[in-house]
Amino acid sequence: MTVQTQPDAALPDPADFGFSVIAEDDLPPELLALAEQVRHLVEAVAHTDVEREELVAARGMVEALTERLNARRRDTTTVLKEESPQARAEYSTVINAVSGDTNPAAPPLSLERTDDGLRGEVTLSGAYQGPPGAAHGGWVAALLDQALGAAAGAAGMPGLTANLNVDFHEITPLNEPLSVEARVTGTERRKVFVSGEIRHNGQVTATGTAIMVRLAL
Ligand SMILES: CCCCCCCCCC(=O)SCCNC(=O)CCNC(=O)[C@H](O)C(C)(C)COP(=O)(O)OP(=O)(O)OC[C@H]1O[C@@H](n2cnc3c(N)ncnc32)[C@H](O)[C@@H]1OP(=O)(O)O
Fold it and tell me: What fold characterizes domain 8-20+74-214?
């Protein structure tokens, strides 16, 4: 198996598939701030134990706010074009469940290039709980899936996850900074082999490997 990258000119352009493409500058900072505030709201709703009258009042406010925000909606499939320091264009969905800055459901995980792949930090709030005090395994897998897929994309080989294996070595704690790393380990025709891990305080909590199948051009 060999690790190869391809020139930018050969990378698929999402616009060719009919998707709307926007740049980072097109996302107003006010939207990022709103999404962050709503993450706090979700965490508060998940944990609140206030009186029923307060719950009814809060629901009314959130209902009114939902109506205001729905006045103008972005297409779900909108793609974000990011210019990396190396000037290679990278693409991701704006409303990405794991890394979407404007998606309040996303933790969000943001990744940066390292010598051999990508690395990022993320903290999962109590809203991502599975067992008491620990992250839900599905979300641990989602962090790895995103990082592994992004590592293939950052290496010039964007694709879809065909197979994902996750080993859970320790519980992944909530409300603690986690580091996520991923890299390409090999290629075979359209298959891109990737591996990665999540660490808390340097201790590996979960490892993952995946096969990404490159988009057929
Ligand atoms: C843009 C960059 C940033 C993106 C970051 C996003 C991260 C998030 C990643 C995701 O969550 S992706 C969403 C979850 N994945 C999917 O929804 C994929 C659904 N499956 C498919 O669409 C197709 O099955 C797939 C594109 C993966 C493969 O179909 P193809 O018809 O294009 O491929 P084909 O069947 O010809 O197989 C190509 C190679 O992959 C191999 N392969 C296919 N499925 C496999 C599988 N499940 N396990 C192992 N190998 C598999 C297959 O054997 C073959 O290997 P060989 O070259 O050795 O012959």
Answer: Thiol Ester Dehydrase; Chain A (3.10.129)
